[in-house]
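Reply to dn_fold:

You asked what the input looked like. This is it:
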Amino acid sequence: MNPLAVPRQQPDGRAKADDAPVQPIAIDASVGIGGYRNSLMDPLDRATSAILRFWAEHELTGVRIESSTWEELALLRGLLLTRGTEEQPLPQITGGGPTLVDTTPRSERDYWVGDSRSIAAAVETAVAHHTGWVNVRAQGTSVSRKIIEAAHARDLRVCYRGPWGGTDDLRSGDHIPSVADLIREGIEGPVEILHRWADAGSLGVDRARLIDARGVSVGTELLALRRSVFLREALEAPFLEELEPVLPHAAYIRQMKRPGGYLVGKRQLRQHAGLIEPTRDDAARAEDGWANLLLTVGQVPEPLIPATRSPQLTLLPGYSWREECSILRHAGVIDPQLKGATLFATGQ
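and this is what came back:
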C-alpha cells in the first residue's frame, strides 16, 4: 500500500460498507506538489500547503504526482501526518519522486542517469520511498529501455515521456502522461507539438489504439498545452490571484490584463517563465494541430485519464481538473470523470 494514500473511497469508486455515499470520482493523473519562493524568508511549506487546500476545496478524490524532488515528497508526507481530522478530506495520492532523464536536467525535479549503476540507484531509491512509480523523460530509447526494465524488475510502474519507439517496452499498468506526446519524436516545445499534430493527426489515432490494446493509460494535459501556446487566452483564466502563493510569477499574468500592462507582463513571463507568444502564422498552424488533437481524443477516449499538470501559471490545482473535463466533453468524451481508477491498482 502506498503510504501517501489518504483513504476516501475505493479506486473503482465503490464505498466501503461503513462509508458515506460516494462522491463522483475526480482523479487527476498529473499534478505537482511544489512551487517556488520569491524570498528565502517565505515559509518553505507555503506552496505545498496551498496545493493541498486547493485539492480539498475542489473535492478531488485521487491524484498522481507527476514528479517532485524527494524533499518535496517528504514535506508533503509531513503535512499529511500533521493534518487535523476536522479538516477537509484529501484525495488518494500516488506517485512522486524525480523524473529520470538521459540528458542535462531542466530542473531540480529531474535526475540524470546514464549507466546501469545510476539507473539501479535511482530505481532502488523509488522503491525505498514507496512511490510505486518511476518517471522517465528520454531523448533516446537505449537508456529508457534500461530504466523501464529496471523499474519493472522491481514491480514499479512507469510513466514515460519520449520518442514513440520507447513505448515498446511499456506494459499493462504503465502510463503516458500526455496524449499530445503520442506523436512526439523528440524534445519539442508546445508550439512544435501542435504543428506536428497539424501535419500527422491521423497517426495519433493509430497509436492511441495500439496503446489502449496494451493496457497502457494516457493522460490528457490538454489545457496545459493550449495555455502554454495561446497566452492571450490565459489572461481569462480564473483564480489567478490564488496561484501566487504557489507560483509568484502568476502576478505577471494578472498584470497583463491591466491597461497598458500587456507588453510589460509578456516580457516578464518570457524572462522568468520562458513563455513566448507565437507569431500569427505559427498560431494559425497550431490551431489546426489543436483541432486534430481534439479529433483524436474524441475518436479514441478509452485509454485517456484527465490530467492537468497543475500547478501552472494559469492552472489552479483542483479547479483546472474541472476545466480539463470540460475540454474532454467538448471533444466527445462522455463522463471523463469516471476514468482514472487504474492509477490506484493493487500493488500501489
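The longest helix spans residues 190-213.
Hope that clears it up.
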